[in-house]
Amino acid sequence: MANTSPAPTAAAPTTPAAGRPRPAAPRALLLAQASNSLGDGAFYVTSALYFTGIAGLSAAQVGAGLAVAWAVGSLAGVPLGTLADRRGPRGTSVLLALVTATAVASFLLIDSFPAFLAAATLYASAQSGLAAARQALLAGLVAPAARTAVLARLQAVLNGGLAVGAALGGLALHAGTRGAYAAVFALDTAGFLLCALLLSRLPAPAPAPAPATGAGPGATVLRDRPYAVLTLLNALMLLRMPVLGLALPLWIVQRTAAPGWTVSALFVLNTVTVTLFQVRAARSVTDLATAARAVRGAGAVMLAACAVFAVTALPGLGAGTAVAVLVLGSGLLVVAEMRHSAGSWQLGLGLAPADRIGQYQGFYGAGVPVARTLGPLVVTTLLIGGGPAGWLLLGGVFALAATATGPVARWAERTR
C-alpha cells in the first residue's frame, strides 16, 4: 500500500551533505508512516463492509465509485506534486494529510452514492498528492545516497502498521456495529492528524524556483518521454498488487484444492516478510545501475512465481500439495515485490530533476492508482478466465517490462 538520487540544483541548499540524512528526519518520517498506516490497515479491511452494510450502498456502487475516485486521484498527483515543488513539500504534505483526515471522517456522514463518490474522490486525490509531496519532502531532507535505505525502512513500517491495523479492523468486523466501524474511521482520521503534526515539525525545504514562462504545471514531466516510458513500465510491474489481494484469493477458491484459510496465511506471509526483510533487500540498490538490475531480477522472479501458481491448477493435486506450492509461489512473489520496490524508488527519484521532484513523483506514482483501478479487471480476466496460460502470460508481461526498464533508464539518464 506498497509499492517507490537527483543531482543538486536550486534545491541544493536544503539537501544534506556527505550522503547522510538529517538525524531527526528519518525518525519523524517513520513515526508519520506508522501513525497513518495503523489506521489505514483497519480502514482497508472494514471499509467495504461499512459502505455496503451500514451506509446502504450496493457492491456495484462501491466498486464503481472507487474506480472513478482512483482514476481522478491518478490525475491529481501531478498538479498536487507541482504544488509541493512550488509552495514547499512540508506545508503541502501537512495540508494533504489534513485533507485525507477530513475525507476519512466524512465517510461516516455519507448516505447516498453522490456523497460517497465525492468523499472517495477527495480521499483518493489527497492520498495521491500526499504520496508525491512526501517523496519530495524526503528528497529535500535526505541525501541521495541514503534515500533508498530510508524508503525501505518506511515500507517495512508501513507493512507492520497495516498488519496491526488489520488485526484491529478484524475486531470491528467481529462486532459488526456502527460504533465499531466508527471507531475504525476515527482511528484512521487520528492517524492522519498525527501524521500532519509530525510532518509539520520537520525542517522546511525551500520551494523550487518558478517554471519558465509558458510551461504548464504538468508540461515538463509529460514532455519527458523516457521518464514517461519508465512510468508506464513501472505501472505494468505494479499489476502485481491485485495478484495477492484479489486474483490469488479467487484462484485458490475456484481453481485449487487448497482450503480457504490459505488466503489469510499467504497475506500474513507477505506482510511479515516485507516488514522483516525489505531493508535488507534494498541494501544493494545504491544507484541507477543497481536499481535497474534489481527490477530486472524482480521480473524474472515474478515470472517464476506465476509459473508456480499455474501449477496449482493441475488435476489431482491434493490440498496439502496445493498449499505447499502456493506458499512457494507467494515466497517468490514477495521477494520480487521487495526487489522491485527498491529498484523502483531509486529510479523514480534518481531520474527526477531536483527542482521538480514533487511533479515527477506525482506522475510516477500514478501507477499505484492505475493498478488499483484497472489491475483488478485485467488480472482477474487474465487469470480466472485464462487459467494457467493466463498466469504464464502475466508472468511474461512482468519479465518483459522488467527487462525493458534498464535500457529505458539509461535513455532517461542520458537526457537528464
Largest sheet: number of strands, sense, barrel closure: none
Helix content: over 70%
CATH class of the largest domain: Mainly Alpha
- Counted by DSSP, the helix tally is 15
Succession of helices and strands? HHHHHHHHHHHHHHH
CATH homologous superfamily designation of the largest domain:
MFS general substrate transporter like domains
| Principal-axes shape call | globular
What is the CATH third-level topology name of the largest domain? Growth Hormone, Chain: A
Assigned CATH architecture of the largest domain: Up-down Bundle
Q: What is the number of beta strands?
A: 0
Gyration radius from CA atoms, angstroms: 21 Å
Q: Number of domains in the coordinates? A: 2
Poorly predicted runs: 1-21, 213-218
* Average pLDDT rating: 89
Please tell me about this protein's structure:
This protein has 15 helices and no strands. It has 416 residues and is mainly α. The protein has 2 domains: 15-207, Growth Hormone, Chain: A, CATH 1.20.1250.20; 218-416, MFS general substrate transporter like domains (Growth Hormone, Chain: A). The two termini are 30 Å apart. It has helices at 24-53, 59-87, 89-106, 113-141, 144-175, 178-200, 219-223, 225-237, 241-255, 261-282, 288-311, 319-350, 357-364, 367-386, 388-414. The radius of gyration is 21 Å and the shape is globular.
